[in-house]
Amino acid sequence: MTSYDVAQHAGVSQSAVSRCFKPGASVSKKMRARVMAAVEELGYTPNAIARGLITRRSNMVAVIVSNLNFYPEVVSELSARFTERGVHVLLFTLDHESDVSRTLQQVWQYQVDGVIAAAHLSPDEIATFVERDIPLVFYNRSYEDVQVCSVSCDQIEGERALINRLVEASRHRSFAIITGPADSVVSMQRTRGALERLRECGATEVLQVSGDYGYRSGCRAVQEILDRRGDMPDAIICANDVMAFGAMDELRYRLDYDVPGDVSVVGFDGVRAAAWASFDLATVVQPVESMAEAAVSMLMDRVDNPELPPEKRLFSGVLRNGSSIRG
Could you tell me the mean pLDDT of each successive run of 10 residues in the chain, 327 residues long? Predict the structure, then answer.
């Protein structure tokens, strides 16, 4: 059964049948009801692959994320925005950002209409998108020396706001940072923002330990801080909220420290769990909904009009004054 059969049965044009299955297409309620009645009577199901061959669009986009623990709410928001547009999402996750070249080989096989990448790509890898005429938008990645589309939260500004909050609070003199993976650009930016502001405030010795953005790595990092220092600093600055949760639980339930009485803990991202009473984490809340909408709109605009020039949008995070900071 084809759309031609449906059109004949309903007494309409084949293009009218196609419009009834295209999200956002202009079609009257009467026409839609007429076509859908014919669809039900004939048992017709649209063939997405055949439609793609006609339109030269797969109606699929790829979303590449470097660490799903770091981006669960972002992936959810992006998926929702694409679904509203009738576009299907192929999700590719990386254990490490350095694995992206292998993932791109998989992406090419699906003939996607565009890609949103929350991972670092080399200039040569970015050039491949241009050669293949596939629109690319970076999420939370910015490039100063390459002309690309990107949607980012201001990591450095947000981290400086967190440090200001810690310094303003009483008795914070010693600090440790739990970073993300060594190849994470976001972690580098957040760490740099924290270190720069701490040095400006007179903190010259700041211990850094590595995590992987996961809960367990936050727990392990706290133990490493204790082993290397022999005691706990006044404040622990975590590169994301999930590691901050692990750090808080390790401090409270395994090492018998009071948070924030003995140690203040801060995160970054503003995931929903940060507002739970058991954490009430001081963090920077990224405007995920606005950023996701911007990234999806930016990509789909370039799918429809490949001649549009590169665009960069920078969003400010909002400081959440949770009770995980002393004073």
Answer: 83 84 78 88 70 63 81 89 92 82 89 93 92 94 86 96 89 92 89 96 92 95 97 96 97 97 96 95 96 97 94 96 91
- DSSP per position, 118-156: ES---HHHHHHHHHHT--EEEES---SSS--EEEEE-HH
Label residue 51 exposed, middle or buried (CB < 10 Å: 0-12, 13-18, 19+).
middle
Who's near 91: CB < 8 A, 6+ residues apart?
62, 63, 65, 75
- Please tell me the distance from the alpha carbon of residue 188 to that of residue 186, in angstroms, as a whole number: 5
Is the distance from CB of 90 to CB of 60 less than 8 angstroms?
A: yes
> Would you give the distance in Å from CA 99 to the centre of its chain?
17
Return phi, psi of residue 194, to 5°.
-65, -45
DSSP string, 223-283: HHHHHHHSS--SEEEESSHHHHHHHHHIIIIIS---TTTT-EEE-SB--GGGGSTTT--BE
Say what the pTM is: 0.80
Q: Which two tokens stand for residue 276?
A: 């739970």
Amino acid 27: pLDDT: 83
| Euclidean distance between the first and the last CA atom of the chain, given in angstroms as a whole number | 70
Contacts of 16 (CB under 8 A, 6+ apart): 7, 10, 27, 31, 35
Determine the pLDDT at residue 131.
93
- Any idea which residue has 């793609």 for tokens? 52
Neighbours of 289 (CB within 10 A): 13
Question: Contact 246/259 with Cβ under 8 angstroms?
Answer: no
Contacts of 242 (CB under 8 A, 6+ apart): 69, 70, 213, 214, 215, 218, 267, 269, 271
